[in-house]
Amino acid sequence: MLRNIALKGLRDIRRGFLWWSLGLAGFVALIVSVWPTVHSNPSLNKLAQDYPEALQAFLAFGGAVDYSSPAGYLGIELFSLMVPLLLLVAAIGTGAGAIAGEEERGTLELLLANPVSRTKVVLEKTAALVLEIAGLGLVLWLALWIGALLAKMDISAAHLAAATLMAVLLALAYGTIAILVGAATGKRTVAIGLTAAAAVAAYLVNGLAPLVHALEVPQKLSPFYHYAVSDPLRHGLSLTHIAVLVAIGGVATALAPYLFSRRDVAT
Q1: Mapped to the 3 state alphabet, what secondary structure does 135-158 carry?
Q2: Please, which of 47, 71, 249, 250 could form a disulfide with 176 given CB 3.0 to 4.6 Å?
Q3: Which of 103, 96, 108, 87 is nearest to 5 (CA)?
Q4: What is the gyration radius of the CA atoms in the chain, in angstroms?
C-alpha cells in the first residue's frame, strides 16, 4: 500500500533535481566569476545607466540599474530574470505533472485505487513540489554564498538568503497554480500553457508599469512586484510581500482538491 505520496514524488524527480542543482550551481559560478572584471570597469556601470528607460525597468531588481555593487550586479545578472525564470520552469513543470501528468500517463487511476483521498493526493503532491523548490533554493543560496566569498563580494549571506527565499516563494506561487489548473483540467499542456502565460503577463505588467501610468494599479497585483519591490539583496525580507506570495500559493492549494474532487479522472 502506498503510504507517502510526497516521498514517492520526490523519488520520481530525483534525477531531474540533480541536474537542476548542477545547472544552477554552474550558472551561479559563471556569473560570480565575472564580478572582479565588472567591478574594476566603472565604464560598464555608466553604460548601463545610459540604457533606455524601458530596458532599465526590466533589468533593475528592486532598485536602480547598478553594476558597481555586488547587490546591483547580482540583481541584474541573476535575480531580475534568470533565477526566477529557472525556478519557474522547474516549479511549473513539476506542478503541471503532479496531477495532470500522472493522469495523462494513466498512473493516476492506480494511485487513487489506494486508500487515499483526492485531497491527500493533492496536498502531498504539493508538499513534494515545496520540498523540490526549497531544495533548489538551498543549492542556489549555497552556490551564491560560496561564490561571493571566493570572489570577495561585499554582500551578506542573510541578504543572499532573502533574495533566494523570495525567488522560491515566487516559483511556488506559480507551481501551485500549475497544480490547480492540472487538477481542474487533467491536461498537462493546458496547466503549463496557462500558468506560463500568467507568469509572462505578470512579468510584463511589472516591468512596464514604471513606463505606463495605466499599469500602476495592476502592477500591485503582479507576483513579480512583490518578489522584487522590497529589494531583498540590499534590505532583506519584507513580511508583507512574503505574505502575499504565500497567500497566492495557499489559495491555489486550497482550491485544487475541491476542483479535483468535482470531476472524473480520465482512464
Answers
A1: HHHHHHHHHHHHHHHHCCCCCCHH
A2: 249
A3: 108
A4: 20
Residue-wise pLDDT tens digits, 129-156: 999 999 999 999 999 999 999 999 999 9
What number is the average pLDDT over the span 79-95? 95
Q: What residues have CB less than 8 Å from 197, skipping those under 6 apart?
A: none
CB contact set of 172 (below 8 Å; sequence gap of 6+) = 91, 129, 130, 133, 245, 249
Cα gap 101→192, rounded to integer Å: 10
Helices 157-185 & 239-261 angle (0-180, nearest 10):
20
Interatomic CA distance for residues 144 and 152, integer angstroms: 12
- How many other C-beta atoms can be found within 10 angstroms of the C-beta atom of residue 114? 12
Return d(Cα 247, Cα 243) in angstroms, integer: 6
First-to-final CA distance of the chain: 21
> Which tens digits make up the pLDDT trace of 177-215?
999 999 999 999 999 999 999 999 999 999 898 888 899
**pTM for the full model?**
0.92
Residue 45, CA distances (Å) to 39, 82, 207 in order: 9, 20, 21
| Residue that has been written with the C-alpha cell 526566477 in this structure | 84
Distance between CA atoms of 47 and 257, rounded to whole angstroms?
51
Do the Cβ atoms of 188 and 97 come closer than 8 Å?
yes
Quick check: 169 and 245 in contact, CB under 8 A? yes
Q: Where exactly are the structural domains of the chain?
A: 5-261
> Which of 90, 97, 98, 101 minimizes the C-alpha distance to 134?
90
